[in-house]
Design the sequence.
């Protein structure tokens, strides 16, 4: 059985988290994270999940983020890697060259014909 690391808040952290938890100006996820950490100082995961109607994974995530990054860890989500581009730079240059230097056969402009001509999605 895993045991969660204890959270001990300083008086400044306690005051800031209580202010965040009462705030109507902060984004809802930040308010929720503040509540999680405030509850985590005195309650177990099961009690927090039941009281807030959230998953144990969420409680664990924000408890860990607070322990590693402090208050700053609660203010924003962790960055995620972006998706690799599906159209390469060389293909993009080819599309630009075709649209600026050629006219499509039997049409006024390029549209779906361009996609078919270079082999990319019409979307």
Sequence:
């Amino acid at each position: 059985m895993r045991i969660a690391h204890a959270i001990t808040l300083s008086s400044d952290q306690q005051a800031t988290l209580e202010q965040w938890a009462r705030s109507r100006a902060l984004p809802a996820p930040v308010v929720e994270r503040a509540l999680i950490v405030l509850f985590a100082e005195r309650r177990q995961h099961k009690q927090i999940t039941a009281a807030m109607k959230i998953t144990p994974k969420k409680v664990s995530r924000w408890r860990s983020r607070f322990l590693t990054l402090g208050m700053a860890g609660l203010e924003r989500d962790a960055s995620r890697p972006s998706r690799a581009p599906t159209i390469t730079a060389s293909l993009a240059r080819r599309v630009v060259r075709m649209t600026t230097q050629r006219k499509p056969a039997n049409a006024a402009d390029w549209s779906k014909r361009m996609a078919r001509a270079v082999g990319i999605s019409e979307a």
In short: The longest helix spans residues 56-69. The radius of gyration is 26 Å. DSSP finds seven helices and no strands in the chain.
